[in-house]
Specification:
2 domains, Thymidylate Synthase, Chain A, single chain, two-stranded antiparallel sheet, alpha+beta, six-stranded mixed sheet
Length: 309
């Protein structure tokens, strides 16, 4: 077993991307340095959780986002009720383009919260993660060569939960977010797109394939959220948490994140935070934010950086 801190592999990848990555001209216009294909492995045994310690990660926002995914909701209003602002940029950008009104983020969010009709029109993100996870559209035969959209979509999370209990040896414990037919309706196509789970020796291992990874900002949320999902599934299935494997496709750092990169690479990781789940609710869909506690987390200061839209 290596004595290296779990976060060092992240810092090593960040340094490699920053020094060896190729310059890419992306859809945001900001530009990135990128490498293609990367992997990290994190133990989740004994309540371990891969929270970054070289900067503060607002883990409660990440947990609230995961709970939002599990509700199947796609409107930012319920996130804003809980003061989670991480999805506002995309509907706000659409609002500004389509109306010509350069409304501030604060005013836009206040209007979303105060005006249900405005929220329904401008706060919806399209069929993003939660829709695909809990209500994947499918069609059923109604006659020879005739199909109609089923009233109820496929709940992939419930299906995986059932298969973990009834057929733990399956190689089909998968939650998929990349619905090709609906990509163009989404505010942002899924970055953390494919989750796969494996039961081995009474432990639940989880793998996340992330097609696009913003290593400077998004990664910290993504790995905490995936670890949380594995922990919830394991608890519901009566399994111990095992290992979390993260795989990245296009792994990148934005060119305007130089101050973040330089500050973070100058820091040394330290500490071993724990994620506690304080109760076992009736189902995977019944967890609340109060059910989670992070202990022994003493990160270094938060490092701010702009989000590329």
């Amino acid at each position: 077993m290596s004595d290296q801190h779990y976060e060092q592999q992240y810092l090593d990848l960040m340094r490699r991307v920053w020094t060896e990555g190729t310059i890419q001209h992306d859809r945001t216009g900001v530009g990135t340095k990128a490498l293609f294909g990367a992997q990290m492995r994190f133990s989740l045994a004994e309540d371990a959780v891969p929270l970054l310690t070289t900067k503060r990660v607002f883990w409660k926002s990440a947990a609230r986002e995961m709970l939002w995914f599990l509700t199947g909701e796609t409107n930012i209003r319920s996130l804003l009720v809980n003061k989670v602002r991480i999805w506002t940029d995309w509907p706000l950008a659409r609002y500004r383009v389509e109306t010509g009104d350069d409304m501030s983020q604060e005013d836009f969010e206040a209007r979303i919260l105060a005006d249900a009709a405005f929220a329904a029109r401008w706060g919806d993100l399209g069929p993003v993660y939660g829709k695909q996870w809990t209500d994947w559209t499918h069609y059923e035969a109604v006659g020879e060569g005739l199909y109609r959209r089923a009233d109820q979509g496929i709940n992939q999370v419930a299906a995986v939960m059932n298969s973990l209990r009834s057929n733990p040896g399956s190689r089909r414990h998968i939650i998929e977010g990349w619905n090709v037919a609906e990509i163009d309706q989404m505010a942002l196509p899924p970055c953390h797109k494919t989750y796969q789970f494996q039961v081995a020796d009474g432990r639940l291992n989880g793998l996340l394939f992330q097609r696009s990874c913003d290593l400077g900002l998004g990664f910290a949320f993504n790995v905490f959220s995936a670890s949380l999902l594995i922990r919830m599934l394991a608890q519901q299935a009566g399994l111990e948490p095992g290992e979390f494997i993260w795989q990245g496709g296009d792994v990148h750092l934005y060119l305007n994140h130089a101050p973040l990169v330089e500050a973070q690479l100058a820091r040394q990781p330290a500490g071993n935070p724990k994620l506690r789940i304080l109760r076992r609710p009736a189902s995977i869909f019944d967890y609340q934010i109060e059910d989670f506690a992070v202990e022994d987390y003493t990160p270094q200061a938060h490092i701010a950086a702009p989000v590329a839209i």
